[in-house]
Design brief:
single chain; 309 residues; D-Maltodextrin-Binding Protein, domain 2; 2 domains
């Protein structure tokens, strides 16, 4: 066989192409994750979503082997952060805290570009029933006193809550109690609500019971939702007709590949199963949860159906 300079050049070029294709193939199937992950918290620092993210961050980093960076995208009762996630690349490198029912209710707002069932849910980790709280220096020491004043003075009492979600949940309770109050929406989350209660700028605040536990030095809970009392709030009565439950979890952008979701779910469940995490949840009035992505998705869909969506 006659070897020419031209054949040598062609052979070399073919080798380069082959190596390049092999490198590209290996890169395409590189194990996830290779880079840091951004975790969006759609509410102000100090609230339940921030606390949840901070509890899980060390375990997620250990399980995934990369840094998990927490960023805050506040406003619109969570809509700003949810919108940011919705438009993010579906590669698993941007994820978000999610609060149910907030993601459902916020999606009904004017000009909102997402639906609650658009997202790729990969696990709910904790839940807590609702609670009505008053400042420590409030003249209302019991629910009966609060209701009696409200009935004598319709619309005079102010009750703060997080955006449209709070309005819906407090509306249910106000109807059960047969009272009229003035609702004060807080767009940045519970982290912005607590200073309002601490300074007695509102008469009451309505959010998940874990906040009443965490902030027991500045608020007193008058009532909690659900069929039973909350162990971390001894002596606080419950209202069985009040069905307010808040659930926290994590989700990824729409269309995130199933294998990436599986990796994120495994890391989340490992982090959420850590003894120190579960002990902190129970101590602070939460109910711990472990879910598959299918269970998390079904949970959101069931909540949407319950609300007629």
């Amino acid at each position: 066989m006659k070897i020419t300079l031209n054949s040598i050049i062609k052979g070399f070029a073919a080798s380069v192409v082959g190596v390049s294709m092999l490198f590209t193939a290996n890169s395409a199937f590189a194990a996830f994750p290779e880079n840091d992950i951004t975790l969006i918290v759609p509410y102000s620092p100090g609230g339940g979503s921030d606390q949840m993210a901070r509890r899980l961050q060390p375990g997620l980093e250990k399980a995934l082997g990369v840094t998990v960076r927490i960023v805050y995208k506040t406003g619109g009762g969570g809509a700003v952060g949810f919108t940011e996630l919705h438009s993010s690349k579906p590669d698993g490198y941007t994820i978000s805290n999610v609060v149910v029912p907030n993601v459902i209710i916020s999606s009904q707002g004017d000009g909102i570009g997402y639906k609650a069932d658009d997202f790729s849910y990969f696990g709910m980790t904790e839940s807590a029933v609702g609670a009505l709280m008053v400042p420590k220096d409030s003249p209302y020491k019991t629910l009966d006193e609060f209701v009696a004043f409200a009935k004598d003075n319709p619309g005079r009492l102010t009750v703060a809550g997080v955006g449209g979600t709070g309005a819906a949940n407090w509306g249910d309770m106000a109807e059960i109690l047969g009272i009229q109050t003035t609702y004060v929406p807080v767009s940045g989350g519970v982290g912005d609500m607590m200073p309002m209660l601490a300074g007695s700028h509102v008469d009451a605040g309505m959010t998940a019971s874990n906040h009443a536990v965490k902030n027991s030095s500045i608020v007193d809970a008058l009532v909690v939702a659900g069929p039973s009392e909350v162990g971390a709030l001894p002596g606080v009565p419950n209202e069985p007709q009040w069905g307010y439950v808040t659930t926290w979890g994590l989700m990824a952008p729409p269309g995130t590949p199933a294998d990436v979701i599986a990796t994120l779910n495994a890391a989340l469940n490992e982090a959420a199963s850590a003894p120190e995490v579960r002990e902190a949840l129970i101590k602070n009035g939460y109910n711990p949860m472990i879910q598959t992505p299918a269970e998390a998705t079904a949970y959101v869909k069931a909540e949407m159906a319950r609300r007629g969506m």
